[in-house]
Amino acid sequence: MHPWQADHLLKQDWCQQLVQQNALHDLGEAGERWLPTSSSRSLYSPSNRDMVKFSLSVRLTNSVRTLSVKEAKRGMRLARLAQTPRWQELQARYPTFRVMQEDGWAGLRSADFTLQEESLLVLRDNLLFSQPDSQTNVLVTLTQAEPDGGDSLLASAVRRLAARLNLPLQQAAFCWLDAYCQHVLLPLFSTEADYGLVLLAHQQNILVEMQQDLPVGMLYRDCQGSGFTQSALPWLAEIGEAEAENSFSEQQLLRYFPYYLLVNSSLAVTAALAAAGFDSEENLMVRVRDALSALRTCAKNTLCLDYVLDSPHWHCKGNFFCYLHDHNENTIVDPAVIYFDFVNPLHQGVIHGATR
């Protein structure tokens, strides 16, 4: 149990009742040393192959960070799919793309046997256990600006890459972005277009594996952000999950997936490279568009690719608006109310107009 959450739970009436009935004992802090990850409610231990993600009854950004049973079950669903031949096909196609599976969860029941979601925890496969010193960074740590005005970690990596390969900085930035597209952007779009698996990969859920400052792979974490389109139904039926609750309509797919993977993640990469002076955002986004355009020529289902390349606008989440109106995005009845239209920066006319 996360120590902060343990203190919180022990103050709840249902938990105090369990203690009084000797059904629950507070053992205090003990056991192995656990350390925080970049996510405040996920911990890891250098001696354990599993990370642990907890409910945390604290509002962070736009929601109170408590797990739900349906979210815990999403991880189990994905872990079962990972045992199927279709998943092995996906891995053979993109061997440097991996998912940190969440194949176990637990929680406490109150005296009336009600499962208390504030007590839930999820086990997450620590794919970095055997290589703790690898050059692997959460994407948001690469792109965020230094508070003193210095280079972001991404800009520093590009400068080292340029020096090592004796390249102009612009060319080194192109190399980094192209590798990002190859190992991060295209695998995630392919899982949706060709397999019907939607992974809402924002900056905090993408771990970029690098060697000598160049992306060579990606780890996706946080299976609660997974979902499926209609084309995945036969695949889900193989594991008896044809009625999965996290099935996306076309409208939901186009609202959420491009926002997380493009606005939140990939445009943060182009913005960080541009902020370092390597090239303009417009020129960098041309390379992103070219990568997606090439993928569209061989994708099975191009609905989402057509939308991100040809639609004049995307849906964009208004995080500040959500905060000002005190919305909890995880429980809001209609999530569409916190999204607004955003001019598509990859649209042919927008890019051509900006680069003239």
TrEMBL record:
PANTHER family: L-2,3-DIAMINOPROPANOATE--CITRATE LIGASE. It comes from Yersinia pestis. The keyword Isomerase does not apply. Its EC number is 6.3.2.-. Signal peptide: none annotated. Belongs to the IucA/IucC family. Residues 1-141 form the Aerobactin siderophore biosynthesis IucA/IucC N-terminal domain. GO terms for biological process: siderophore biosynthetic process. Residues 176-331 form the Aerobactin siderophore biosynthesis IucA/IucC-like C-terminal domain. It is an enzyme of class 6 (ligase). Keywords: Ligase. GO terms for molecular function: acid-amino acid ligase activity. Pfam families: FhuF, IucA_IucC. The keyword Electron transport does not apply. InterPro entries: Aerobactin_biosyn_IucA/IucC_N, IucA/IucC-like_C, LucA/IucC-like. This is Aerobactin synthetase subunit alpha.
